[in-house]
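Progress report, Aim 2. The chain analyzed during this reporting quarter is listed below.
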Amino acid sequence: MDTHALATASRTDPLGHTTLAGTQRTTDTGPTKIPIVAHIITDDDLEILQGSKLQPLNLKRVIKLLTDPHSMMLYDRHVNALQRICRHYQKGIPMKELVQVFKILNVCADRMDSQILYEQPVVDILKLCALPYLKEKSSDELTYEQIVIESVSQLGYLMRIPSDIIRKQICRTLQAFYNESSIVQDVQHKPSSLSYNRRMVEMSDISETLVKSLALLENNLDIKLQVLSVLQDLSRNSGFLQALFKNNCEQMLRAEAAKRLCLRLMDPDPSGQLLFRSIDIIWNLLEYGDKHIVASQLNNITCISQLRDAFIFQMTQGYSHYDRQLRNDLLVISSLVAESCPDAPFILSEGHLLLALFSFVRANEKQSRPREWSVAQFEEMQLHAMSVLSSLCPLMLEDYMTCQGSTRLLLLLEWCVGPDTFGGHGNSFHGTSGRGNKKAQMRHCLRLMRSVVSTEDEVILQDLSDQGAINQLLGVLSTAFTKSADQYDAELFGTLGVDTLVRHLKTDVKLLNSGLGHHKLLLAAIDCVWCSVVGCYITEDYLLEKEGVYLLIDLLEMSPKNMHNLIVGCLLDLCENPKTVNHVLTWRGQNGSTAAHLFCEMWRNEEAEIGASRDENGAITDVTKPLMGQLQEERGTVSLPSQFPSQAIVDVSENMRAKIYSFFCKIGFTDLPGLTVDDHVTLTIIEKYLDFKIGEVWTEIMKELEMENVRPVTPDAEAMEAISRAIEERAQIVAATQAELLEAQRNQDILDEQEFYAEIRENHRQAEKRESDFAAFTLRVSSISHLKAAKKRQELSIDASRIQPKYRDIDHFHDTTLHTLRTTVFSGKHVKVETPPRVTEGERPELAPYDPGELPPLNRQFVKHLTI
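Predicted structure tokens for the chain:
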């Protein structure tokens, strides 16, 4: 290299730094130009990239091959070029190549009508589009964002190709791209994330395009179901970036998706997927989209007719849980549409809905005829119908007058205040406080009349007045004033009345036998709690706050037996309040007994009084009569008319076993604290009380049939025999459970006894050992020979306990024993050694004069650690 080349290659400055070529000073005196060196070190330079390197492919040549007039007829070369693209991008398509790839797809799509050879290559390229797009750099997601969005939109535009295979593949590609996470691709480029893919789909117009493509698929059910499946996924996951972009549901609504889907609900579909998927998409549009837009799209008689036909079809033809769920979805969608649509009443009016609802506004019957609603079902339907009429009648006054609504309401009101007895069931929200009376019907009837009168329509007001509504309402008011409701009485009782009752419930039980009338006062207080407090949540909560439940159970524990029935009944009704159960479970008696133990003891007393067949432990002895008492058994079975109760039914009211069973149903049968084995034995009978009582009633029925020489038909006889056998088997199971409990208790008692005797033996053994140890100690300290023998035995015992018996023969053995020591007590591991300080000849200090007042210097103490 010559001098000029060397000067050009490098130059050293005065500080010793080397300047690269092209950076030499312009003049010797001018300033130095410092170059900007950008050190870009890629992963490829460091050789840390994993996977195969994706070489670039010249797609422009492929496009030119497809579009050039001289080569556009070379179909074989076109197919080979497309297959080469599929093989090259089998790991995924880079984002920077998407424009050219979709340009190739569009060229092939335009030629699909004339040449079918492009079909399979297009399908293969669409399969590659299902994979996450590849990025060389992290910034590619932002750089090619608009390109990715337009590419996703192009997938929807390809639905114009009249090929079932391509359309199916487009649907599969969209589902995989939108739902599946990034897979591990053996290539150096990084795949896009699932969240990025979903965001790109949200920003594209693929949802709107797919909805519009349904018009091309009316006669192709398979492809239509595939498209609906894609729309189902897009609408379900809608709102990924709702704050920034229009979501999928809004795009679908722009294409009138609700109307398009609803118009084709009842198209022939053997699989049933068309109705299910369409309803699911409409549901998602209502949930994530604009309800008013959905309602406006469905606000036409054609769509409503389709919803009605679908609902009727599911009502009449559906039999599975899936069909019932779809039926409920149809009903909810119709309700939401009617709620959001201001023109909904025209649908209700043309469908004669008010006439159907007014068919329930009539007097309730005590018994239902075959193949009709039961009494409880009709009552619930009636209350629901009147609740709906309260909202619809003010909007549909003409239909109200056509159905003679005023006459129907006044007749129902007359029945409500009439003398006819009716026991309402009080089911559902609308039947609150209506159990055993007609209050729920009267309340809804008056509410419906109020809603109609509030319209101030002169025709309706005149109609009600002419039919005597004023006189009838005055009669209702006079009845209400003369006889107030029990709940209102309880509310008027108030907290002051509860305070008075609590003070009387604290009466000492010892005063009951004083003859001064304390027992009457206490009975009146308990009865007042039952009548004036129970049933009103306000006073019930205040009674619980004042520990009224604790006082009642205290009285139950201490009071005479003739008061138990009243107290148990009051507690049982009070347990309808869920808060009472915790108070019952936390109560403790005089000896720490619990409420569960107390009620089990009362059950045993009741059975002992009626003479039930039990052994000394309270277990069942006769499985054929597990509940029958001695008096009931002596009376036997007597054939009675149907209006007279039998012995098994009378037994329920003659003792407290039914109330105790109901009480345990409130507090539970498991995990009860403070129960003994006898209580558990009793609890097994209490838990099966209802089953045993049912079996007892069936036994009486069969005996009465035998006494009357009535032979039931074969199915009834087999049913009664099966019931009897089942009850007897259940009694045997209970008896076996009781035997297991008692056997476990006996085994536990034996174990406790053995442990007790073992403890006694151990105490005696320790006492004997202390005596023998003291005798051996006395012998050692009194005789040197015995001491040596004890020491020898100790050393032999220590040697025998060592791992290496020949440890004394090793070269580095250190004996730690003192041979002159005559003790059998083990020495400690620390030895105290006292040594005077050592002073050399040259360092000998002068001796100080002796001063007796000074203390002598302390000797230094060293501690030496010895290992035995």
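Confidence is low (pLDDT under 50) at residues 1-29, 855-868. The CA atoms of residues 357 and 385 lie 5 Å apart. These observations will guide the mutagenesis work planned for the next reporting period.
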